[in-house]
What does this fold into?
Amino acid sequence: MRLLLTNDDGVHAEGLRALVRALAEVGEVLVIAPERQQSATGHAITLHKPLRLEPVHMDGTVAAYASNGTPADCVILASLGDLPQPDMVVSGINAGANLGEEVLYSGTVSAAMEGALQGIPSLSVSVCAYNAVIYEAAAGFVARLVGAVSECWPLPPDTFFNINVPNVPIADLKPPRLTRLGRRKYSNVLNKREDPRGRPYYWFSGSPIESDCGEGTDIQAVQEGHISITPVHFDLTGDLGHDQLPGFMSGLEKMDFCGGK
Ligand code: MN
It folds into this structure.
């Protein structure tokens, strides 16, 4: 089995190395990862500059490249380029959780989404901590999961697994739970400061506010020490649009946008 590994923390990130070590036991590992930090770049792709792949040395891989593109670019380069088509995409291991609406901003998650859109079974993996991150437990779990689903991928088309692992030693990790996305907004603090030349600059900060961490959510699972596995699909269509807004739609029809047609 050919495994494409990528991430958004950059090709030199410790979480990627831990994943390579664990997955080298399971299949042929190809790494294509951003040359530098690309966290929170979402599903951006590069259209207005050339993309490059620079070989890097990484033990346990059949080949490893640093790309000047985004995480989604890395997956597209692997699936459309002249490299062998991967059988599975594994993105991570990210330093920091990707829970609730964080999946929309995350480069880690978007790489797995791109894999799913290319028709390749895909996973994104994050550990819920930024400091003193324990990657080995998550890496070991992913290696076993990849082995288990390699023969029979359990998800429908265009759907991938987003996995979050509590930052605890293996012995303290509780069994995986199948979850739905919770809600995890940020307090959205905008810091305004002054640079040495007296010009203002801005820096987003803030801490997460969990507005839905109820039963069945990814947030609740990791808070209770479980590995969270959420099936994610790209379809963002709102549930309310079609049958609950008839008045709105008949009003639009009366506006005669199309010259009476
Ligand atoms: Mn990241």
